[in-house]
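I am hoping you can look over what I have pasted underneath with an eye to the fold:
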Amino acid sequence: MEQRTFDTSVTAFLDTLASGAPTPGGGGAAALSGAMAAALISMVCNLTIGRQRYADAESDMRQVLARAEMLREELQQLAEDDVVAFNRLSAAYKLPRVTESDTAIRRDAIQAALRRATDVPLRTARAAGAVLPLCPAVAERGNQAAVSDVGVAALLAQAAVRSALLNVEINLRTLQDPVYLHQVRAEVERVTSNLDAEAEHIHALVLHRVKGA
């Protein structure tokens, strides 16, 4: 069975990321950052559940934990999907263009591959952004000893969204479907409309508890 790109040690992954190989790249790194954000939220939930001091928060923490784990799984898969999408786009660019028919087939293949290569980071941005709404409850009611990890999760999720959308933008330059372009632009606007304010709010909540105020 072929090894998945991200089923490897951290060192091996970083070595590959730093190499001249085109994949994994920024899209996979963005998805992995989002997955780490979700994992940190899961960690704080797990450090809260079962503790008598936080018994009143246990039901909420279990719900957050279930959602965080769903997002972590999704983002891990998106990291893999990003590699597949890039490889398909690279293969499309290598198609022959000897005849007019070849050129037309190649053009259509590139456009289809570009859409796939845009959809994946857009889904990554959406999933990473979905980690942020999980943070306030955990910052306010989760284990205070681990509240700083909620702040790290929020920063990673925010960065994952922005990073993924850079990969969206670079593909939009050569996409030719105006309807699809409009849909993507609208989705980018939706995903980013409250992103920074949400992250700032979570940061303030975390600092409040870190300082014991």
